[in-house]
Amino acid sequence: MSDVSRLIEKVSSVVPGFMGYKGNSFLQDDRLIRKKLLAMVNEARIKVERISSAVKQKSVSAGLRLDDLRIELLKVAQLLKRYSYSSESTGLTRVKDEFVQEILEEDVKLLSYASRMFEKVVILTPTLEPKELLEKVNETISLVNEMEAILRKRENLLLKAVSSEAK
Fold this sequence. Notes:
By secondary structure, this protein is an all-alpha fold. The chain has 6 helices and no strands. The protein has helices spanning 3-14, 26-58, 60-81, 87-90, 97-122, 130-166.
């Protein structure tokens, strides 16, 4: 099994309907990846919002840091909602084959980071000691920031792959 096939298998096991950017599935596959990531980010943000007021009553600094996490999650959600390439602007629906493996690698990284971030958010509870909670929130913010960097790298890669296909 090739590296590309393994990567497609990894992504499709998490994202139903994902076809691996084969043929004309670029926009559909990209939309599926973004939709899955957005669902995870939004669910994490909702969880953070639910515990925020209870945490603020116990520790203002931890509560404020939770607000920072919520803002970072909102930023990533906005990145996932927008994209600078579309069939309308480029007239394309496919990606040049030489870019597929690299794009898939970024997709796998993003899905992995999103999963780890979500797991960290799930264990955030107002019952944790303020110091421990602050530590866990900071770790989660770091993951979200890394997700944002990977997402930006992926978008640049997709723009390059689409503009390269246009040539």
